[in-house]
Amino acid sequence: xxxxxxxxxxxxxxxxxxxxxxxxxxxxxxxxxxxxxxxxxxxxxxxxxxxxxxxxx
Length: 57
Fold this sequence. Notes:
91% of the residues lie in helices and 0% in strands.
């Protein structure tokens, strides 16, 4: 494996562990709200990126 692949794998593992710990120690309603907000933010960000590329760039 290349050095870049090892770094990416390490980052993914750390993010996964943090996600598992977050879901373990937060109440269910907070977890669901956070996931819904994150998903909404991803969708809005993607739409903004498309509109920026189409009209501004």
